[in-house]
Amino acid sequence: MSTVLPPPTPRATIDDLMRADGKAELIGGRIVHLMPTGDIPSTVAFEIAVSLREYARAIGHGKAYADGIGFAVPELPSGRESFSPDASYYTGSLPVNGMRFVEGAPDFAAEVRSENDYGPAAELEMAEKRADYFLAGTLVVWDVDPRAGTVMKYTPADPTHPTTFGPGQEADAEPVAPGWRLAVDALFA
Asked: Where are the domains of the chain?
């Protein structure tokens, strides 16, 4: 008696991800769709991106991205091959074909928590994604928590002990964006 196994599912590629509907990332050869966000997380991410765009224009260096950008990276030990942060800042080379993903990790990535980004499983998933960001070359990752009204800044030098910015403070992305600051109160207004 022999068992007939179905043919293996082919690994998805960056080209497959480019054709995927909606926001998604490529992890372990699979296209992982990301949930749309609600009003507050979307508004917060947009505020970060707009402020970064103003900063990039003022200094004449780097490029800010809003939600939906794709960053393609060489496959990491976790299997991850892309990122799609909620807001980001990038100073590297841009793709020759501007319709394609950016090749390389963002210098700065902001991940804004949505309704389902709370609890032990979500915390583990976010920590794993931050570790992937750092392995890919990202220098600063923000974990933005609308419920708590805080911004936690992580760096590869101390990836488990963030600097936390709260009400009345200004969050920064040093050393990536020297001089750029964002008032936490304004972010959650």
From this structure: 36-187
CATH number of 36-187: 3.90.1570.10
Look up the pTM and report it.
0.92
pLDDT tens digits along 110-129 = 999 999 999 999 999 999 99
H/E/C letters for each residue in the chain?
CCCCCCCCCCCCCHHHHHCCCCCEEEECCEEEECCCCCHHHHHHHHHHHHHHHHHHHHHCCCEEEECCCCEECCCCCCCECEECCCEEEECCCCCCCCCCCEECCCCEEEEECCCCCCCHHHHHHHHHHHHHHHHHCCCEEEEEECCCCEEEEECCCCCCCCEEECCCCEEECCCCCCCCEEEHHHHCC
Q: Please, what is the average pLDDT of the chain?
A: 93
- pLDDT tens, position by position, 38-67: 899 999 999 999 999 999 999 999 999 999
